[in-house]
Amino acid sequence: TTYTVCVIVGSLRKDSLNKRLAHGLTRLAPQNFQFQFVNIGDLPLYNEEDDANQSLPVKRVKHAIEESDGVLFITPEYNRSIPGVLKNALDHGSRPYSHNSWSKKPAGIIGISLGAMGTSMAQQHLRNILAYLNMPTLGQPEAFLKMSDDFFTEDGDIGEDSRSFLQDWMSQFTKWIALHSKK
Ligand code: FNR
Predict the structure, then answer these.
(1) How far apart, in whole angstroms, are the C-alpha atoms of residue 174 and residue 86?
(2) Ligand 1 near 17 CB (within 6 A)
(3) Separation of 24 CA from ligand 1 center, angstroms?
(4) Mind listing the pLDDT tens digit for each residue in 5-62?
(5) What is the distance between the alpha carbons of residues 6 and 71, in angstroms, rounded to a whole number?
(6) What domains can you pick out in the chain, each with its CATH number?
């Protein structure tokens, strides 16, 4: 069985550590998992007036989520919460009312930051939102990652120090997706 997982990165910048984490981490997944990177940078600011007439980028994101077997959120922490661009995407996908694209999609949360607390507050806030959106979210293992010089190799792989930990994280995450998928 093959599974398709949408990857949503909460940082838009080109040199994002979380983007690098997304690429390094997804390389640790089993062969039968495909990862689709979903761009949220072109979504307009959410406005409820547009619910009946959603723009093409919104429809594209909603369609990708609906077709997927689950969602992997990889996000920085901004001011002890998730970035506004990620909340914007979550709000778009939840609408129009009764057409919540996120519902029942299994999810995982991970992130890397410069601070020692490794996105823990952002992850906790995100859990709250995903609970409301009806997404069964992997509880363990948690992963709070702090950037260091050797976190990534030159080739963009996960460095030796974190590799087996993140290999296990990915193994648990993919099992979670398979468990909750209807396949
Ligand atoms: C940050 N950063 C940050 N780090 C953290 O651990 N806790 C926080 O609350 C914040 N707050 C915060 C707010 C804003 C507006 C910015 C721009 C940054 C620092 C953050 O960890 C660092 O910039 C990361 O490199 C951002 O992730 P990406 O863009 O590299 O993926």
Answers:
(1) 22
(2) yes
(3) 19
(4) 999 999 999 999 999 999 999 999 999 999 999 999 999 999 999 999 999 999 999 9
(5) 5
(6) 3-180 (3.40.50.360)
Q: Quickly tell me which residue has 């949360």 as its tokens.
A: 109
Q: How crowded is residue 15: how many other Cβ atoms within 10 Å of its Cβ?
A: 7
Overall average pLDDT of the 93-116 stretch = 97
ipTM entry? 0.99
DSSP string, 75-106: ---BTTB--HHHHHHHHHHT-STT--TTTT--
Question: How far apart are the CA of 50 and the centre of ligand 1, in A?
Answer: 31
Taking CA 90 as the corner, what is the angle to CA 79 and CA 163, rounded to the nearest 5 degrees? Answer: 65
* pTM higher than the cut 0.95: yes
Ligand 1 mutation target, pool 114, 125, 151, most atoms within 8 A of CB:
114
Name the packing angle between helices 84-93 and 120-132 (round to 10°).
10
What is the reported pLDDT for 153?
98
CA of 98 to the centre of ligand 1 (A): 34
Question: Is the CB of residue 101 below 6 angstroms from any atom belonging to ligand 1?
Answer: no
> Does the beta carbon of 76 lie inside 6 Å of ligand 1?
yes
Nearest to 95 by CA among 133, 64, 69: 133
Three-point CA angle 123, 57, 62, nearest 5° = 60
DSSP SS3 for 19: helix
